[in-house]
Design goal:
heterodimer, A: alpha/beta, Ubiquitin-like (UB roll), Rossmann fold, 3 domains, 6-stranded mixed β-sheet, 4-stranded antiparallel β-sheet, 13 helices, 17 strands, about 25% helix, globular, B: mainly alpha, Ammonium transporter fold, 14 helices
Chain lengths: ~450, ~325
Amino acid sequence: MAVPVSRYPTFSHGVHPPESKDDTRGLPIRQFPFAPSLVIPLAQHIGKPSVPVVREGQEVARGQLLAEADGFVSVPQHSPASGVVRRIGLVPSIAGKMVTGIYIEPFPGSSQEVAEGERCDLDTATPDEIIAAIQSAGVVGLGGAAFPTHVKLRAPEGKHIDTLILNGIECEPYLTTDHRVMLEQTADVHVGIRYLLKATGAERAIIGIEANKLDAAEALEAAIPEDLPVTVGVVQVKYPQGAEKMLITALLGSEVPSGGLPADVGAVVVNVATAAEIGRLLPHGRGIQERVVTLTGPAVRRKGNYRIPIGTPLRFALEHVEASEDVSRVFLGGPMMGQALSSLDIPITKGTSGFVAFTERETGRQPPEYPCIRCAYCVDACPIHLNPSQLGLLAKIGDYERMADELHLMDCFECGSCSYVCPSHIPLVQRFRLAKSVVRERRAAE
Amino acid sequence: MSGKTLDIDTSPHIASGASVDAIMRNVVYALLPVCAFSVYVFGLTALVTLVAATVACVATEHLLSRARRSTVGDWSVVVTGLLYGLTLPPGLPVWMTVLGGIVGVGVGKFLFGGLGYNAFNPALVGRAFLQAAFPVSMTTWYPPLGAERFTALPSSSLTFPFATPTYDAFSGATPLAAMKFDGNATATVDLLLGLTGGSVGETSSLLIVLGGLYLIARNMMNWRIPAAILSTVYVLSAVLHWLAPESYPGPLFMLFAGSLMLGAVFMATDMVASPMTSAGCWLYGVLIGALVVVIRLWGGLPEGVMYAILFANAVSPHIDGLIQPRVYGTAGRGGT
């Protein structure tokens, strides 16, 4: 597919969905009020769920530990408000099933005052102490993956991390949280980078930003302290530029080996808002109690970027921003990789970067599916250079083994570019998702 | 927002808006100027041929796909019909036109499984059938720019089905035949503008190129295929002409004569029957270009575009098997 010539680096292939960011990119982050009841799932991250350390009826302060990490690949939860633990039981989750969580009832007039814990002093802390502090702060990837950040900061045995990459790409349409954080929390970002550089032992840091956020690039560049080895790397506007591998290729020119980790090419990638959060929390020994969320879409009247307490029910959030009564579709995250929600009762969690809400008026009819005409649009779109057309034909007949063994199915990271461009409207990535989970199950069973 | 249900689906929730019917419709738009110019050059008989070819193809598709759901709506058969009509000689009896259309869509497309599964370009299958069945009619050429072309049909057009057509006032040869058998070259400017004898659509190279550029600009045609075909023909014939100017025609003549332009731009680029990768498309185009030169200069026929493309169509899946993109983060290629 034709790509506009640009002086900025990028990866090969990819697509250009409409950005749809104009409604919120210029709106400063605003503080959200407390909902009458906050819902804190114990598993807001990839890994083992946290273990409650409070009991029902207990009073908690804002920032107090609610649940502690269970092992290394796990993070604790902190109370987003001063209030009472009403109940520890089942809470609705994004996936649809009920999971264990904690209900907090904030005190009326609960202030934004936060309890402070043990500070992590940048000058005296060892890398291991910083990594432990990041875990204690409950930090996970705020870009949406919600993978515990501290886990990837320690280079695997025999590997050395020389470059820390800050991911400020935000290539999903509609979302503008990272953009605003970069503009408004430049100091936090650079403090976070200091912690991360020391924790990983990396010699330098690069902040990757798409060319549609040049104001953020300038702000961050201007604020770089003299002694900090940080550069800002502006890259082309293209989806999925924000994918870890694509960003590494654009900035470093190297490819992460199939099945490998960024550490294999000496890099570690951390979301820029995650770095800002580390810079905000660690000097005070605090844990995550809130995050920036973009609430937007045609169904939302007061669109914007809001700092929302973790656990705020989506229904409360949408009412607060005066969402239309006839909202019919809500995506968690952007429209390319985000999830369509089946219920408004789910809470905002650490991995929630935004909600895009639509009414029935904007929801088009599903166009008819045609046979594959081998136009190769998908071949030219796939950032991993797979052959989605051929994979799609194999998926249709259920030959998942061949897809995985011969056509690199497991390298697909489900960006959805193939489905986006397909003129036959074949649900390619949807079928690959299914195929991948079947292959994973079979391999686990072996 | 109260108790209402939400619609769910799996991501991506947005699409680029590209669709098969839009692509096919745009190919039709790109072909319309070519068709209009043919009607100007050959008159009523070109119009009758194009209409008969398109109606025959569309009707065949409709009847054959009716069992499940008529697939006429994807517009691909309209493209096939127009392209098929453009490859026929003007003055061809209507019943032959209809028969070839039925064979092209019935055998060339539906026997293979319909849209997306046709190994060969159905329009060329129809033409190849006629070429084999009615070699005389398929090589009898109606003269261009005849004085009465808008008022009368040639006598052959309305021949009773399965009767032998009678031809009168027909010119002897196309530029390629004149070249091959008599050694007369036609002026390149006439070829470029299309004021020469030949098939309905092998007239104006200029309009064909413009149509192709339109589709390339809309990302609905892989430009590598015509680029590879045309540059291969140019280079090969330039070398041969330089070696033996008396025996071989010049490269410009080779480019603009006959159905090369129509074939390179609109026939070889059939998405279904051409390779998927860029490298594969280059190889496929070079193969067609080389075959065209070989058949034209050393074969028994004056024109070889149709057979060159059909042959390359057959090879196309093997090119895809051979050339696959290199998967990110691996040393090897994606296919096996």
